[in-house]
């Protein structure tokens, strides 16, 4: 019979129940419970578009706890490390990621090195320690800050670590590789964020002190890069904390100001190079 109602999504099904919003027939598969009666899946999806996503106090969207950025960063470090074993030496030597940079040889012609060196590691142990720290801190910070803010924090901390390695004394002639500068920036952000939230910070502070002292007293570790990343991460996190509760302009203007300072210091370091 032509006047038998059918579901728009499933025309082969008789549907005597109608959506309370659009009044179209909806079969059991397409029905969704509503405050009164049911709604169809199309109306529920349309209504969801107008609902603002809940956000954390720092601006991160609370739709899920998936840490996509953290996983991508870990993947990039693994790919960069595996490249030396998988790719032919002639190909790997051509890539910008191939080597860390000598701190007294950094110049305008190698402008990418402060960032790409943060994805390289000198040994499997070096790689595993940094990736474990990145996994733990990223799982906490990325959902809280949001993906874009977390990327800004990580990248600026990595560049801040390069600034420390380039400008602080005691590193001339040494090669700088590793995500440690960025990791120390994440450590600093953990401390700042937890203080703002009124949470415990003693263990985080102890972790920072112990790891920094290891870099001071163990040969082959750049405490200068650790300090640069730590200070930069603390500055970015402080800006993000000051701009919490919806004051996004404060967050982005402040983060941009930190970025300008870090890039200016890198430019200054490049001009000092004899190469």
Question: Outline of this structure?
Answer:
With 275 residues, the protein is mainly α.
What can you see in these coordinates?
The chain has 275 residues and is mostly helical. The protein is built from ten helices and four strands; from the N terminus they run ββαααβαααβαααα. The chain has helices at 41-49, 68-86, 89-94, 113-116, 124-145, 147-167, 180-196, 202-217, 223-242, 248-272; strands at residues 31-33, 38-40, 101-102, 175-176. β1 and β2 (38-40) form a beta hairpin. α2 runs antiparallel to α5 and α7 (180-196) packs parallel to α9. It is elongated. The mean pLDDT is 83.
Q: How far apart, in Å, are the first and last alpha carbons?
A: 86 Å
Number of strands: 4
Summarize the main sheet.
2 strands, antiparallel
The tally of helices reads 10
**General form:** elongated
Please state roughly what percent of the residues sit in beta strands, choosing from under 5%, 5-15%, 15-25%, 25-35%, 35-45% or over 45%: under 5%
Strand order of the largest sheet: 1-2
Determine the structural class based on helices, strands and strand pairing. Answer: mainly alpha
**Helical coverage, percent range:** 55-70%
Q: Which residues sit in consecutive blocks of at least 5 with pLDDT less than 50?
A: none
| Mean pLDDT figure | 83
> What Rg do the Cα atoms give?
25 Å
Q: Write down the secondary-structure element order.
A: EEHHHEHHHEHHHH
């Amino acid at each position: 019979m032509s006047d038998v109602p059918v579901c728009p999504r499933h025309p082969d099904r008789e549907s005597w129940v109608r959506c309370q919003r659009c009044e179209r027939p909806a079969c059991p598969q397409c029905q969704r419970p509503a405050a009164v009666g049911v709604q169809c899946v199309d109306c529920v999806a349309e209504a969801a578009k107008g609902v603002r996503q809940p956000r954390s106090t720092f601006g991160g969207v609370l739709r899920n706890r998936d840490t996509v950025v953290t996983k991508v960063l870990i993947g990039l470090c693994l790919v960069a490390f595996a490249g030396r074993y998988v790719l032919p030496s002639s190909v790997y030597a051509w890539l910008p990621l191939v080597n860390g940079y000598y701190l007294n040889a950094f110049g305008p012609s190698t402008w990418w090195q402060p960032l790409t060196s943060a994805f390289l590691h000198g040994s499997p142990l070096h790689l595993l320690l940094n990736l474990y720290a990145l996994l733990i801190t990223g799982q906490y910070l990325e959902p809280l800050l949001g993906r874009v803010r977390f990327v800004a924090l990580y990248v600026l901390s990595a560049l801040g670590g390069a600034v420390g390695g380039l400008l602080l004394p005691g590193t001339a002639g040494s090669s700088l590789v590793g995500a440690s500068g960025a990791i120390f920036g994440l450590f600093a952000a953990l401390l700042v964020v937890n203080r703002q939230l009124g949470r415990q910070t003693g263990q985080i502070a102890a972790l920072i002190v112990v790891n920094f002292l290891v870099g001071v007293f163990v040969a082959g570790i750049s405490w200068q890069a650790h300090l640069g990343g730590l200070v930069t991460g603390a500055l970015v996190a402080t800006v993000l904390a000051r701009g919490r509760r919806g004051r996004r302009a404060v967050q982005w203007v402040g983060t941009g100001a930190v970025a300008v300072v870090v890039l200016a210091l890198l430019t200054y370091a490049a001009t000092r190079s004899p190469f």
